Amino acid sequence: MAVVEDKKKYRPLEPILIQINKDFISLSKDEMKRNNALLMSLMDLLIPEMKRKDPLFKEMYTKVFYGGSYYDKLRVKEPNEFDLDLLLTLPVLSEPLVSIANVPGYTTLKLNNLSALNKHADLAKRYSGLSKLLENEKDCYLDNDKVRRWMESVVTLALNTFPHTKGNYELKLPQGKFIAKVHKSGPAFTLKLNGTIDRVDIAVDIDLVPCFMFNIDKLPVKKLNSGFKSKTFFIVPKPIKNNSAINCANRYWRLSYQEQEREIMECKNNQYLKPTIKLLKKLKEMDHPYIASYFIKTVVIWEAEKRKDDESFWNTSFSYVFMTCLKKYCECIENKKIPYYWNKNNNLIQNISPVVLGNLKCRLNNIIKNIEKNMTDNPKIFAEYFLTEEEKLRLYSSLNLNIQ
Q1: What digits encode the pLDDT tens for the residues 38-76?
Q2: How many CB atoms lie within 10 A of CB 127?
Q3: What phi, psi does 177 have (nearest 5°)?
Q4: What predicted TM-score, i.e. pTM, was given to this entire model?
Q5: In total, how many domains does the chain have?
Q6: What's the maximum distance between 2 C-alpha atoms anywhere in the chain?
Q7: Of 197, 229, 257, which closes a domain?
Q8: Residue 306 shares a structural domain with residue 208
Q9: What is the dihedral of CA 285, 289, 295, 297, to 10 degrees?
Q10: Domain-located, residue 404
Q11: What distance in Å separates the CA atoms of residue 239 and residue 253, rounded to the nearest whole number?
Q12: Same domain, yes or no, for 308 and 386?
């Protein structure tokens, strides 16, 4: 009976949540179509040049995986940042071995039989640069820093084939002329693209990330065999934070199950899953930006796992689903633990100060209490925590609510 009451309890919030989802956390379909076409045109232009300039890239490249919050349809801010994973494979003859590392969420990649390539003149020639990407030729671990630097050089060589002045590259795309510029900040390698489409100025940042792709049978992760259609996973050259105490830190690669996570979120029964993640992200950007968006996504994915046999939950009402997940998020912060979905021994927020988490817990508790206390008489209380002043005025106008 209590569950039924809870579902009805949040009904006063429903119109406001639906309107916020429509007006403030959903991207324009026309804008998405335009951006998708632009990025595909860019890759159609750039990838052939990268293959032409680097024989090793030509051998290992398979396809682009369009990842990140934009392509997961979880983007809340303006769609001007994109993650493109360049998926690579290694020659079977080199016997690549993926092993779970002693750092949660990470793996190592070792070529157990690199010498076998040298016994075949054709393969030795085609993969002649592979040994330069290893930590050393004795241990044969793939070095994530060397791979990142190699990819940067391949992209730069390809860009140099286009007209350029002082690091500004002129690219002629079907959408028009664009200027590309490379930006380097720490390990991140970003391509900044500027141009105009239909008299609208376009400025986007594109992270090109070299990733290696493997079949799931190469990794002993039980969840990967739990009915997912996708049978591959990626490893990403993401450095370990605070790695000074870790030996051979460059041999560690971050595991990535983007395809499987996308399947969870796109389940036909999970109607309000993505809007809930986006609204929680909206709250964190307004109130506590130091929490990574992926952590929030993980909280909701765990909730999807918990309720995988309860098809009705995600389709009850947006307000009920959202408030349930907001409370779960608060509970995780209170417990100072958000377990990584693919390895629950990895606490995603373990490096955040207990004082910071304690303050956030109090903040979230207050938000929940104030919403529940006032939502019947004043449903606008919800907007106080999720929208800017300008957005609130737009919302109240849309719903014909009094501004005061």
Answers
A1: 999 999 999 999 999 999 999 999 999 998 888 888 888
A2: 21
A3: -85, 130
A4: 0.90
A5: 2
A6: 79
A7: 257
A8: no
A9: 10
A10: no
A11: 7
A12: yes
Which residues, other chains included, contact 58 with Cβ-Cβ below 8 Å and sequence gap of 6+? 50, 51, 52
Structure tokens at 129: 């640069």
- Number of H helices and E strands in the chain, helices first, is 15, 13
Quick one: angle between helices 273-287 and 258-265, nearest 10? 110
CB 213 within 8 A of CB 87: yes
Same domain? 98 vs 151: yes
> What is the CATH number for 74?
3.30.460.90
Give the residue from 190, 224, 257 where a domain finishes.
257
What are the residues whose beta carbons fall under 8 Å from the beta carbon of 4, sequence distance 6 or more? none
pLDDT digits (tens, 9 = 90+) for 246-296: 788 899 999 999 999 998 888 767 789 999 999 999 999 888 888 999 999
Q: Is the dihedral of CA 350, 218, 112, 235 positive or negative?
A: negative
What gap in Å lies between CA 179 and CA 382, rounded to an integer? 42
How sure is the predictor about 244, in pLDDT bands with cuts at 50, 70 and 90?
low
> Looking at the domain assignment, is residue 403 inside a domain?
no
Which structure tokens are listed for 325? Answer: 């997940």
Question: Could you give the 3-state DSSP secondary structure of residue 199?
Answer: coil
Determine the structural domain holding residue 242 and report its residue range. Answer: 29-257
3-state DSSP percent of the chain in helix, strand and coil, to 5? 50, 20, 30
Tell me the pLDDT band of 325, cut-offs 50, 70 and 90.
Answer: very high
Q: Mean pLDDT for the chain?
A: 89
- Retrieve residue 118's tokens: 């040298």
Beta bridge partners of 134: 142
- Do residue 163 and residue 293 come from a single domain? no
My answer on whether 101 and 172 are in the same domain is: yes
